[in-house]
Every structure is written in C-alpha cells, then in structure tokens.
Amino acid sequence: MDEGNFQAYEGEIQALQEEIRQLTEEYEDIQQESTFYSDEEILKAIKSLEGETQGENNGCASLSDLKAELESLERDLSFLTAFTGFHFTSHSKKTLERTKTRTVQRHRLSGKCHSLSFQVEFQLLEMPDSEKVSSVVSDLSIVMESIEDSNVSKFVSSTEECGDLLAFFRSILAYAEWYEHRKCTFLHFK
C-alpha cells in the first residue's frame, strides 16, 4: 500500500474517532439533562402526547391546555425577572469530563441585571456523595459592559480570584439597583 494512501486513511480514521467521541459526549449530556425530570413528569408528558394523537377533539383540548400552561410559565418568568432584576439571555453548557466520581462542566451565562449587561463563564465540578452532590465553582470569568467605576472592576477581579459566584450575583444586583437610581437622579438635574 502506498504511504500517502496509508496516511490519508489514518487521518480519516482519527477524524471519525473524534466525531464518535463528540457524539458520545452530546448523547451523555442529553441523557443527563433528561434525568432532571422526575418519572411523574415524564409520564405526564407522555400521556399528554398520547392524548393529542387519539383524536382531533382531544388534541385541541390538550393543545389549549398546553397553551394555557405556556402562558402561565411566561407570566411566572416575567414575574421572576421583575422580582430579581435578572434577565438571562443565553446559557450554554459543555461537559468536559465525566467519571463515576466527578463531572466537570463549563457553563456560560449572558444576561442583564437592570440595565447592566454581563457574561459569566465558569467550570462546575460536581462530586456525588452518598446522599448529596457537592459542587465547586472554578475558573470564573466575568465580563461586564460599560463599567466606569474602578471599584466595580476591582470587585469583579477579586470575585474571579475567589470564584464566589453567589457573591457576584448578590453584589451586582445591589449595584445595578443603585446605578439605576443614580442615573435617574443625574437625569433629573440635567
């Protein structure tokens, strides 16, 4: 066999092995996401889908129930956004490592807190214990748009070093609320 053909086949084999690895990771991510739903929720969803296929009249009733449920969820989301001040625009998750003793995932969140835009990226290490799962945040990276205040920049830097995601969300909420008040006050005097 010619050496060039052999290398071409080797390259193709490696590319296929990499594609298989990526597809396996995607499948495992989908499997893990499906475990977030309880058996009761899955059975309820299956019964709902079966009801739609049994007849046009039943399907319309199920469709109207689904629309009502969707409207209710949208109202709940709107309430939570107004209540907390956070509006998340995107979220992505990628599993980097999965073993029986630990799972490492990279998360990326984008959103706004009042009028301040932010993007947070971090790794989440989950280690299941006998009764619960312990989680550790690492490699925290925070990007905020339009930060004029050097104290906020220092706070973001120290939060990234500590990896304290909860402190970031609590503090940015308080800062964003007062930022809005300051903007309104300065507009009043202009």
The total beta strand count reads 4
Radius of gyration: 24 Å
How would you state the average pLDDT, rounded? 80
Low-confidence stretches: none
- Level of helix content? 55-70%
Secondary-structure-based class equals alpha+beta
How much of the sequence is in beta strands?
25-35%
The total tally of domains equals 3
Shape: extended
Strand order of the main beta sheet, please?
Answer: 1-2-3-4
- By DSSP (H or I, 4+ residues per run), the number of helices equals 5
- SSE string: HHHEEEEHH
User: Oligomeric form of this entry?
Assistant: single chain
Q: How far apart are the first and last residues' alpha carbons, in Å?
A: 81 Å
The main sheet comes to: 4 strands, antiparallel
List the helices and strands and how they pair.
Layout: H1 3-34, H2 39-53, H3 56-84, E1 86-98, E2 103-113, E3 116-128, E4 133-144, H4 150-162, H5 165-189
Antiparallel strand pairs: 1-2, 2-3, 3-4
Helix pairs in contact: 2-3
